[in-house]
Protein 1
Amino acid sequence: MKSISKIFTCLIVFTFLLAACKTVKVTPAPTIDTNAILTEVVKTAFAGMTATALITPTPEPSFTPTLTPTSTPETPTPPVSPAPSATLTAPPPAGSLPDKAFFVDDITIPDKAEIAPGASFIKTWRLKNVGTTTWTSSYTLVHISNDTIKSPASVDLPKKVAPGDEVDISVDMTAPTALGMYTSWWRLKNDAGQYFGVGTTGLDPIYVQIHVVEGGGTPQPTSSVTPGGAIVSAVSLSIDQDSYTGSCPHTFGLTANFTLSKDVKVTYALKGQSDTPGFVFNFPPAQTSKFSAGDQTLSFSLDFTSSGSGWIRFLITAPEDVSSAKVKFSLTCQ
């Protein structure tokens, strides 16, 4: 009986073992398409973003525009430079040019003055130094246009002229013989040979304008007065006769006048120039003397032995550099 039970038990165990060893058929897992999954994810995300955009609009970016106006702005007012004056009525400010002059007045021969044909006259301008440099005796007034009115090519300034000071410049001239209106143009020149003048640019010339008519005047002063400086003023020189014809040697008498504002030592001399080749001046040497305040007079005698013509000037070099205008002379020895 026990044997049968053992056999039965073994059969049951064997049956289970066979069942355990039976091949099990496994269904393979399906292949996953990753591209399809990514596509679906993108579609889903895009659908979500679209839905969000429909709900909350995306704000516009902010920026500061650069404006290019097509018309004149209304609010800003651009600075306006003052227009230059067409007529100079006051001295321009110093400093705009190193050398610059301002026309003050015609001391002699106003515009369109009536002059007799061929008459000699002295034209005097008063100018003011409105530049930044001092005009020295090396500065000249130069004739630049119209030779019809006879005159020297240039004249020296009669004194040093500091910025802000005035000077009278005289030129000997002779009117044409033909009737009509004539103008002679002049410009200043510095010691470097550079021209300058008056006006807003500091380059405009000065001029003399005369009307030559029958019966016109014959202004021929034998002396001229310059304004001078702070100590020495009213400097003048006169000659007893500006023309002589006769036996030689001949003596010309000259008289110099000037005014002093205080007691001071004065250094003075005579200076001249002749248009005649070989003509010799016998000027006395420069002298220094002490003078009291007030009007002063000095006399000179000059002896000449040969024919010639030219001009003479009385020059003071101390305490200030001041001189008279030129006086002309003509000598014909027979």
Note: The domain at 222-334 is CATH 2.60.40.10 (Immunoglobulin-like).
Protein 2
Amino acid sequence: MGWEDDMKDISFDNQVVADTRPLSDLRVVSFTLGAAGPMVANCLGFFGADVFHVESRIRPDGHRGGHNSENWNKSPTFVKLHRNQKSITLNLSDPEGVRIAKELVNISDVVVENFRLGVLAKWGLDYSNLRLIRPDLVMISLRGFGSTGPYDKYATWGPNLGALLGMTHLWNYKDANTPTAEARSQHPDFMSGVCGAFAVMSALIHRARTGEGQWIDAAQIEAGAVPLGPLYMDYLVNKRDHQPSGNNSHSAVIQGVYQCEGKDQWCTISIETEEQWRDFCFVLEKHEWLAREDLNTYEGRIVNKEEIDACISEWTEVRSKYKVMETLQASGILAAAVQDVEDLLKKDVQLRDRGFFVELDEPELGVIQTEGFPTRLSETPGEYQTPAPLIGQHNFQTLKDVLGFREEEILRLEQYGALY
């Protein structure tokens, strides 16, 4: 009996009882904005951590909608990144706001922050100060370039890091009018967020064994650079400097994106082996290609790529992108329909069959469909407990029930402007 048989008896039911969530005893304070820091807190919150997102109306997160208060509670990016979290607004430029923040840290296990270097230090909320309050604190700082080096104080955001990494250069087409092709998906932010959550868990395991907390210095540019490792090696070993190649591949015999039936409908096709090439010729009923000496080698197909691409396009243009994908996949050939957001939500049978999309009732957006978490733990799968918080929604609850403030004291702090 193999692992496939074992898997048949495992249920991946997303409905779990709250006390089974693996991080339900963990309390996290999140001094974050943008995407990298919130992504760490998002991952921890999904598995049960009690996350307090500290923000301010004085300088609201750009993903909240900046100073456009009408969007504060319905910005799609903010809503995505801050589910399973509580919002507490603190004026950290005021000593009272800093005092409340420190009291919250004192009863917490983890602090996540991705402010510009030096910002938290001026409020006394950097690691060197917070460890005096909570010696076993685990704190992670995420910055574009990390917290050391000549660029440590530079301001960054995901798209410009992709350009600096060379990632957007490599995504581009040869002879394009602009030097980069930005996907606008902020890869370094999300990659460093997931890596950061892993680092936090590693530090918590260390704390459980030794009682020691620690500070984690995370650089978004380093997390984003990791997938490019083979290209660095190719340059060092073979002196090969990779340039933009569009949809072409250095390893595939034939690779491209081909027009299918309908307006702006496409399918990707990639042929990597001789066996796949033979099967492809049979699917397209191009048996004569197998008899041609000039198409018997990788180099020969590259020389004749324009002819081959034209024939492939003739075949794909009269078929739907899903039919092309299914036909080729049935013959062991790599192919995938190019999907837009509407396709993913309405037509992707794989994601829907696995229950990837879930419904949430957001306070100001109403009932929406959104993505679930991309990993399934058989015993503790995690889930969305709460929608993203309204700005300052949990001020009173946090101060009264968590920190033990009297109601009259909370009212005084509100009037004074510390909770803003």
Note: Residues 1-18 have pLDDT under 50 and may be disordered.
